[in-house]
Fold this sequence. Notes:
By secondary structure, the chain is α/β, with parallel strands linked by helices. The chain has two domains: 4-127, Thiamin diphosphate (ThDP)-binding fold, Pyr/PP domains (Rossmann fold); 152-279, Rossmann fold, CATH 3.40.50. The chain contains eleven helices and ten strands. A five-stranded mixed sheet has the order 1-2-4-3-8, with helices on both faces. A five-stranded mixed sheet has the order 5-7-6-9-10, with helices on both faces. Strand 3 (99-101), helix 6 and strand 4 (124-127) form a beta-alpha-beta unit. The longest helix has 13 residues, at 22-34. The chain is globular and about 60 Å long. The termini are far apart.
Amino acid sequence: xxxxxxxxxxxxxxxxxxxxxxxxxxxxxxxxxxxxxxxxxxxxxxxxxxxxxxxxxxxxxxxxxxxxxxxxxxxxxxxxxxxxxxxxxxxxxxxxxxxxxxxxxxxxxxxxxxxxxxxxxxxxxxxxxxxxxxxxxxxxxxxxxxxxxxxxxxxxxxxxxxxxxxxxxxxxxxxxxxxxxxxxxxxxxxxxxxxxxxxxxxxxxxxxxxxxxxxxxxxxxxxxxxxxxxxxxxxxxxxxxxxxxxxxxxxxxxxxxxxxxxxxxxxxxxxxxxxxxxxxxxxxxxx
Length: 287
């Protein structure tokens, strides 16, 4: 399911299939890292949950350089509630030593693969969705690792700060375009990393603009938006904040676009909710 059969054909001596045994896969990766190798553990987001004890005790406590590739992170569609990759941000970001990143498209995924393989300071995880990407050109050069914890500024605006994570970055850009048609100019950031957050970029903009929105394809409880809210509050940056993601419910069988529409996560839906939350005058309270 992770598509590694192509890798197996080209590099059979660097490929190990442990079968449906996620706990063993993580412990094996930890052992390989102890021997100086650079293990890449490709596992569905939802099934990595089964190896949570091994992630903590065998990898993170020892601070081993294991690169986790979390396939099918986010809304997966017809496979239903058992396969929705909703919880990885929440269950990984609370573990010490873990770095967590997510690409906005397939070209950035290439950069993050290079980043993960070259990260030797401890464990690192990359989440990415099911599907074929956005059709952007793949990199032919520029295969340097990304700086850990550094976001990307995509658009400038004085009225709203919008932080997109992973697959929701393009949705953030769509929402920003719609808002611009209504005279609302948005700064859009591709967060890239949820842990560590790029607070050097986020904090000054949040303080200056005064309205913050976060977008993620994962559970709202404990997710990317929660990480941003915690960071802002802990540093006394008390600004209005609205989070978009998957609420406290199970996502059933449907096409991904249908599920996103049901959850209010399309670009047009998000733009409308932002206008209502921040830019629609509320009636004055009657004294």
